[in-house]
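Write out the 3D structure for:
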Amino acid sequence: MEEHLLNEFEEFGLAPNKKVLEKCIELLKKYNITPDTLVNHWIGYTATKLNDEAPSLENLILFEKDLAKELSAKTKIKSEPLSESPIIHNITTITQITEDDELLVGYGTPVRKSSVGAKRSSGLEGTPQNKRLAGLGQTYSVHTPSSFSPSTPGTSSKFSSRNNAGEVVVKYPADDVAINWTRTNETREPDIQLHGTAETKLTTKYNYMFSRIRDKFEVLEEQINDLGDLMKKKLEIDDFEPNCVLKSETFHTVGRICCDATSGSRLNTSSLLLEGNRNTSSGQSVPLDVSQLKEFSFFPGQVIAVEGSNPTGKKMVVTSITTPPISSVFKTDVSLEGPLNVMVACGPFTLPDDLEFAPLVEFIQQVNTLLPHLVIIMGPFVDVKNKKVECGELDYTYQEQFDVVMRELQSKITNSVQVCVIPSWRDVHYRAVYPTPPFPQENKVSNFKFFSDPSILNVNGVFIGLTSTDILFHLSKEEIAVAPHGSDRLGRLVSHLFSQQSFYPLNPASEEMSIDLEQAEDHCKLSFTPHLLFVPSDLRHFIKNVNGCVVVNMERAVKGFCGGTYSRLQITGGASAVQIRAEIVRL
C-alpha cells in the first residue's frame, strides 16, 4: 500500500516523507478509500486552498477535515431513499410549479430545491445547455471591445492578491547563474519557418473525422510497418515471424499494443494483446504473458517488437521487448547572431469562473517588460471547460470573444517582439479536432504568425516542437509499467513520443480527443528529435534533457483559481551546437 501511495504522489511530482506517508496510510484505513482517491482529493484541496503546497503533517490535519466532510456528503447522497413512485410532470404541472416558485420568491420565501423551475439556467432566457453550442441562440448586448468581458465578475481578486508572482520554480541547468532576461536595444528579428508538411491540407475545407475504416486501417498498418523496419535494423534480423504460430523456440514478432476488452476496460497485465500487421501476422492478435519481464512500459497504440515463444499457439510468453530506436537530435546549421530570448505560455488565460483574462494581461506586461525576441502563446484562449462558457453566460458569441482576445494581444504586445500563436482543440469557437488547423490570419499584424497544433518550427536552425494538447497526462492515465523505484516516470512518458515518432502515439485516444488519423499521419509525426520540445501538461512542471532534447512542461497560465506558470529561455549556439538555459516562473 505504501508503494502504491508513493507512486500516486510521484505522478504529480510530490515526494512526501516517511511520517507523511504513515499519516496518509492512516487516513486510507480510517476512511476505507484507495490511494488514488486520497491523492486526487489532496491535489484538488491543495490547488484551491493551499496554493499547491507539498503535503505535511500540519496541512494534512486540515485536509482530513475537508476529506471527511466531502466523503460524508457523498455517503448522505447515496443513502437517500428513492421515491416509491416517480412523479411525472406534464407541461401544465411544470408551468404551475414555476409560477408557484416565482410567487414564493416575491414574498421572500426560499424556493424548493427540487422544483423544476429551480433547474433553469441563471443565464439568459432560452440559453441552450449543450456545452459546445451554449453560445448559440442568445441575444447579445452591444459592448465596446475596450475590455475582455464587460460583465463577468468572478474570482480575479484571488489572482490579484497572490504573493508568489515572479518566483522561479525550476531552473535549467539547476546550478545555473542568474540570467539577464531584458533585451538590449537590438532590433534583430528571428527567422521563423514551419518545418515539415505544409499546412495547406489543414487550412483548406475538409470533412474531418469522416475517414473510412479502410483508410484508418491503412494509416495504422503503415505505422507498424515503418517502425518495424527500424526495429529490424536495431535487432539485426531479416524479418519478423507471425505472432500466432505454435513455436516453443524463441522468435521475434512485431505489432501494436491493444487492450482485451473482455479482461477489463483499462490496460493491465491480464488484458495485454499484441495486434500484428497484415503482411506478417494477417492482422491477428495474441495475448502476452509478461511475467518473465523485470521491467516494461506499455500503453495502447504502442508499436513494439517482442521476443518470446508461443508453446500453445494461443499466448506468447515474452522474454524481451524492443522499442523503436530514438533518432539523434537533428543537426543543422545554427545561425544565431547572439542570445535568443524566448517566452512561452499555454492557456487557459483566465480563471475557471470568469472571462476577465487577468492572467493574460499580466503575461502581456511581462512580455513588454522583458522584450524577448520570440513569444509562443498556445491555446486554449476561450476554453470549452470554462464555467461561463459551459453555462452560456457570455456577453459575446464565441468567435467575438476570441476576436477580442486576439485584438488585445496584437494591440498591446510591442511590434519588436515576434509572436507565434498555436491553437487548441479546447478553443470553443474553433474546430474540435486534432491536429488543429492554424487560426485564420485575417487582420493580423506583421509580427504575429499562426501555426497548427502540433508544429515544428525552425528558428534560425534551432528546431522547436510544440503541442498544446496534454499528451503526457493522457499517457500517464493509460500506461502500465514496472520500473525500478525512483525511476524518472515523466522522462519515460516523453521518451515514448520520440520512440513512437509521434506527438500523440496513444490509440485509441483519450475520450475527450477527436483525432483525424489521415491528417495526423502528415501533421503529427515527430520523425526526428528536435532541440526543444514544449509539452504543457496538468502534470507537475519540469525541464528535462531527454535523449539530447530539452523538454519543457511549463504547465498552464492558470492553475485552479490561482496564477499558473510560464517559461522563459535563452538560446545560444553556432554551427551545429545549441546551448539552452531556461526557467519556469510563476505568473
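The radius of gyration is 27 Å.
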